[in-house]
Amino acid sequence: MGTSIISFSDRETLSNCCSQYVPSWATVELARWLTFDIANPNQWGPLDEYDERVHSHQLRDDEHQRGIVQSLQDLHDMLKEYQAPRVVHPSIESLRSHSRSFLASLFNRRSQKSQSNQIPSNTPKGLYMYGDVGSGKTMLMDMFYDTLPNNITSKTRIHFHNFMQDVHRRLHAMKVKHGSDLDAIRFVAADIAEKGSVLCFDEFQCTDVADAMILRSLLEAIMSHGVVLVTTSNRHPDDLYKNGIQRASFIPCINLLKTRLRVLNLDSTTDYRKIPRPPSGVYHHPLDKAAASHVDKWFRFLGDLDNDPIHKATHSVWGRDIEVPSASGKAAKFGFYELIGKATSAADYLELMRNYDAFIVTDVPGMTHRERDWARRFITFIDAVYESHAKLVLTMEMPLSQLFMSASEIDDALEGGRQKGLVKEAKEHEGVDDVMRQMMDDLGMNMKMLKNSNLFTGDEERFAFSRALSRLSEMGSQEWVERGLGMEHRGGLNEKEGWQRVRSRWREDSL
Description:
Elements lengths: L10 H8 L5 H14 L8 H10 L7 H18 L11 H4 L6 H15 L9 E5 L6 H10 L8 E5 H19 L5 H12 L2 E5 L6 H15 L4 E6 L17 H10 E5 L17 E2 L5 H13 L8 E7 L2 E9 L2 E5 H4 L6 H10 L2 E7 L7 H16 L3 E6 L10 H13 L12 H9 L2 H8 L8 H17 L2 H5 L10 H18 L1
Parallel strand pairs: 1-4, 1-5, 2-3, 3-4, 6-11, 9-10, 10-11
Antiparallel strand pairs: 7-8, 8-9
Helix pairs in contact: 1-2, 9-10, 10-11, 14-15, 15-19, 17-18, 18-19
């Protein structure tokens, strides 16, 4: 007699069939088991798990928490199509530091540094979730880890403190066996990568100087094998190892976390409308599957979709029409090519500033010397947004530090600056992004670096590019983003109305 499999079209049908025979909690578990193991196993993701818990009254549906779970789901969907590269262990001989002539080290320094820990371009961007005690960090990590798609055949989850203890133990054993003249971190990183293509940390923190000194090299070496990192913490990356010994040497690790992981705030903050602020920052890269949900969350928050549904709008300047593809309330959304690809001017951008307080620009490409016209136009738009104190949300192909120059162009300019003594030498644990982040906060440093690039026609253009990076950095800060939005912790509606009065008077004077 053959075995028949009963199939149900949805979980509600299953729940109704089972409710008269088994307790409700068992029905939920049975539905989950059948859906996960008999149907397509990759269909069940964090969002399904969250919906199931809400449906069974284990959780209350919370808009902010649902936004976090959507970010988990976005990564889950990307992992379904991801195949990590085979881990290749470096040989012991290749890890030994060989003495070389001064000229050899001069010519090989950059090529060796770029090749040793290069992260594969197809590696999905991981997640860094931070929040206070009680913000649901463990539950969210459970949801993500337990529903990883079936093609992820190796995965690791470990408390970060235990992880670092194990790393130091392995490093010590390597040095005892092979001597101290060895880059043992890369060998240990390969061992860790073999254990799982997805590595999940609970409670990421750094309180020990020994950890701080190796974390950047360790994490970058692990990710160079295509490992995707997901971690929870009670601190934003910027607040890690605060006031620690030699903290300056830890800054590159912070930059790595912010560049390679999507930082999500688990603590719910709402505005006067009780709408939660999106958990991520306003800038998103790369242009992956998570980019669309990033745009949707910010458009809902900055616009007024309930009272003013998304619509097209038209504005006129000097007898010409400016088309806005998507508008809601005081927010406007454009694709990069819709805004910059056309022959638009400063006058067009100023007219937009008169009508909107927030702008969302999607699909921003990296702009090298071949796209200088786009870059100049985009910089004019950035200046208009900054000077009108508006909000700016971007989805970008490249990280902010490489928006106007490619990594190789930046590297060449930095090297020229170092040879002339205008730009400081990069430390061993610093990369191009680390130096560029410092320069984005220091307009003078940025100008010195750009003077060594032949990509710009003169000092005026160099200054415009430098200032744009500096302004983008400022507009991405929490202070800039939340000012005037009526966030409850800043005073609610009174704060919003007060800011609108100030901005209105300023606009009359300047626009």
